[in-house]
Write a structure and sequence with these properties.
Helix content is 89%, strand content 0%. The protein is rod-shaped and about 125 Å long.
Amino acid sequence: MVKPFPLQTLLELSQLRMDESAKRLGELLAGEQEAGARLILLQQYRDEYNGRFVVAAQNGIGRDAWSNYQSFLARLDDAIMQAQAMVAQSKLRTADGQRELAVKHGKVKAFDTLSQRHRSRELGVENRKEQKMQDEHAARYFQPRDEEE
């Protein structure tokens, strides 16, 4: 009978942690995509608003309207800078998550390799026992019998 792998609990725990890390990485990637989409929307809105400002300026606008356009464009620029910072932070967190997953995967692979080696050794022991039993059985079968007279 094959002995169980003594580190099976650690193998299962490391697999669980790797799965959790993979899930977290998925969430980080989704957050990064969301932050990128938000940035793109802000940039598009700023371009549209700036276009309206240019058209209004060409048609002639008052000082108050000019000031309002400039003020709002400045706020949009601030929001874009914040969104860019969020995208950069999100990319760093995603890269950290990828590294963490790689480390966890390495641990699982190491425990799995140990498990496979253990199983191979145990199967070898079992095969040798079985071969020994067959050899003993064959030796008894072919052993010369004393003839009773």
